[in-house]
Design a protein that fits this description.
The complex is a heterodimer of chains A (about 230) and B (about 450). Chain A is an alpha/beta fold and about 230 residues long. Chain A has 9 helices and 5 strands. The longest helix of chain B has 23 residues. The chains are: A alpha/beta (about 230), B alpha/beta (about 450).
């Protein structure tokens, strides 16, 4: 017999709700969470610049709904080569999260396929969650029927965290691992390494292990050495 | 979930991106048996992708984890029977399946009734006609065709008529479907060589309701079949209700004989709601959702959002979600503040240069002629309309608008606004142009 494993399935760690640093987006987080947890809640449309957490929220919703036993599917349109086939094919999910909606604007047949999918999911009692870089009216969707349906969603303009908020998150995450990051290290990271939170948190994971192995505190010289050795480059 | 599959996903998680995992593997359900693992995909599309890209790797990982060969069988379906949706009682499904007569899913949304329909000048004719039809199916107007832009209430009226027919006569067989469902059913019937059953299914109803028939355009076989269904229903006085996004005669690639049939009954235009109706719709929807909205807030939204009812609803949903989250009442300040993004998208498109450009395109005149001093009638009227639209849709003053139209006096602009307003009251064609332009500019 196969032994039971105690741990539940690990979803991509940083794309759960509890890892979402809401900042100015707390109301959006609440609405997406409501949709993931209660099938009858209004459908949600998120828009904002890259790095504002659109995909994170979509993936987190999929994770939460899936954990509650609902059938979910995540559809990142920009990663799919053939939009029409994808949209025509993905029925029968209880929660469908469509990411990067903007890429199909102006593709008439693809817009139509999404319109049909929208109606199908609605008729089946499922839920949809949309994300794009712009608001529905600004996407450049040609099919008015689709544009108006997207317009009926609860809409949130996501805002990316500012530098101060990103610093606070990084500090907090470091503290949770028992690492102290002083201001000099933070300054160095933000000016020399990256400002993108996902990249910074990835680095933090690797730094954590390296500093443990080397039995050294994380300082600017340590950072320089670590990144020069190449182990810091993903 | 199968434990083996759970461990397989854990292993794959370190090899694949979160996107791939959520898009393709998480939707799968698994069942373990003596032979190996059965994986159920929600749809053929997922199945094909999984088979093509991930199956070999899945089989390797499963084999390693199980310590033996672990063949995977992929199919479309579910590892557990899906729970019946609350709307469909399991028992009645079983009874219907057992009965020789075909089942009649009416597909009507019980929320769409005449009571919940907000009436205004723009839609009262449509409402009256739909009610007449529901009271005397097959006799009052056949077919009843409701046409107009998206999100103006055509589907609501159609469902309301169907619901009223069933309320007055529980045995009344009503069937609502969207045009693409009709197309889909027909393709399926052709594929499985069940055309007789298809014909029977649609011809044995008391009322057939088909939404958005403009999507029949260019689909010749569908039109042919629909034409025959239409004739059969019409001849035996079964009710037909249809909606279309414009007057059917204006739909390209719709067969002339079908167009002419559509005109046999009554065609009613559903116009975009006026300001008062928009405010009333908002208040009604707010009450429906249990959201406290004052008349001032309703008026603010109705003033800013003119495109269609769905955009109003989106604004209300957004407002309610934020008010609920922050625990604040929806005052006009709160509405202004929290909907700035949303309203900005509506206000943003409407600038004077944009109005000039779109009006010129609409009347097929050159932009530089529209802004010129030439006073021929073919230019003067579009110019006056563009000026009146600028006054109506932007916050600019009369002198500012005059300046933007090639340095004209503010009295010229005022005269244009008055002329157009008067014409809209007396000339149906003018009113249609005016409303169409507003829809394009604010939609």
């Amino acid at each position: 017999m196969i032994p039971q494993l105690p741990l539940a399935l690990r979803w991509p760690r940083r794309q759960r709700f509890e890892h979402f640093h809401a900042g100015a987006n707390a109301a959006a987080l609440a609405a997406v969470r409501a949709l993931a947890e209660a099938p009858g809640a209004p459908w949600v449309y998120l828009h904002g610049p890259a790095g504002s957490g659109r995909s994170h929220l979509l993936l987190a919703a999929c994770q939460a709904a899936s954990a509650a036993g609902r059938r979910v599917q995540y559809l990142p349109l920009s990663a799919m080569h053939e939009h029409i086939g994808a949209l025509r094919g993905v029925g029968s999910s209880e929660l469908l999260a469509i990411d990067d909606l903007g890429v199909l604007a102006g593709e008439r047949a693809a817009e139509h396929a999404l319109f049909d999918l929208y109606n199908q999911v609605r008729a089946e009692g499922g839920a949809m969650l949309f994300a794009a870089d712009r608001a529905p009216a600004q996407l450049g969707i040609g099919l008015p029927d689709l544009r108006s349906r997207l317009g009926a969603c609860t809409q949130f303009a996501l805002k990316a965290l500012d530098d101060a908020e990103r610093r606070a998150v990084l500090k907090e995450q470091a503290a949770a691992r028992g690492i102290g990051l002083d201001e000099a290290v933070l300054d160095w990271l933000f000016t020399r390494y990256a400002r993108d939170l996902a990249a910074l948190l990835d680095l933090l994971d690797r730094l954590d292990q390296a500093s443990l192995a080397a039995k050294r505190r994380i300082t600017v010289p340590f950072l320089r050495e670590f990144l020069r050795e190449g182990s810091g480059n993903a | 979930m199968s434990d083996l599959w759970r461990r397989c996903l854990e292993r794959l998680e370190s090899e694949l991106s979160a996107e791939e995992l959520h898009t393709w593997l998480m939707p799968l359900q698994a069942r373990e048996d003596a032979i190996g693992v059965q994986l159920f995909a929600p749809n053929p599309y997922t199945l094909d992708t999984v088979r093509e890209r991930y199956l070999p790797r899945i089989e390797v990982v499963l084999g390693q984890l199980a310590g033996r060969d672990c063949p995977v069988r992929l199919e479309v379906g579910s590892s557990a029977p899906r729970a019946a949706r609350p709307a469909v009682a399991t028992k009645s499904v079983a009874v219907e399946n057992a009965a020789p007569a075909p089942a009649f899913p009416h597909n009507l949304d019980p929320h769409y009734t005449f009571e919940t329909f907000v009436e205004g000048k723009s839609n009262q004719l449509g409402k009256a006609a739909a009610m007449q039809v529901a009271m005397n199916p097959g006799r009052a107007y056949n077919p009843l065709l409701l046409y107009g832009g998206t999100g103006l209430g055509k589907t609501h009226l159609m469902h309301a008529a169907g619901n009223l027919m069933r309320e007055r006569n529980a045995g009344c067989k009503v069937m609502y479907l969207r045009s693409e469902q009709f197309v889909g059913a027909m393709i399926e019937a052709l594929r499985t060589k069940n055309m007789d059953q298809f014909k029977q299914r649609f011809r044995s109803v008391d009322a057939l309701l088909i939404d958005d028939i403009q999507f029949f355009a260019g689909k010749d076989t569908t039109q042919e079949e629909f034409f025959h269904t239409f004739n059969a229903l019409f001849e035996s006085k079964q009710q037909i209700i249809l909606t279309c996004d414009r007057y059917p005669k204006e739909v390209d690639k719709l067969e002339p004989r079908l167009k002419s049939r559509l005109g046999w009954g009554l065609s009613v235009a559903i116009e975009p709601p006026d300001f008062e109706t928009r405010a009333a719709i908002l208040l009604s929807k707010a009450q429906d959702k249990g959201v406290a909205v004052s008349e001032n807030v309703a008026m603010l939204l109705a003033k800013r959002i003119r495109s269609n009812v769905r955009d109003l609803e989106g604004a209300l949903n957004t407002l309610a979600a934020r008010a609920n989250f922050y625990g604040k009442p929806i005052t006009t300040d709160f509405a202004e503040e929290t909907l700035r993004d949303l309203l900005a998208t509506h206000a943003q498109a409407v600038t004077v240069p944009n109005i000039q450009k779109i009006t010129a395109e609409y009347f097929n005149v050159r932009l530089q002629d529209l802004l010129s001093k030439r006073r021929v009638r073919s230019l003067a009227r579009p110019r006056q309309i563009a000026m009146a639209l600028s006054k109506e849709l932007t916050e600019h003053s009369l002198p500012e608008i005059g300046e933007a139209f090639g340095g004209r006096d503010h009295t010229t602009v005022l005269h244009a606004c008055r002329t157009i307003r008067k014409l809209c009251e007396t000339d149906a064609r003018m009113r249609q142009d005016w409303e169409q332009l507003i829809r394009v500019l604010t939609g």
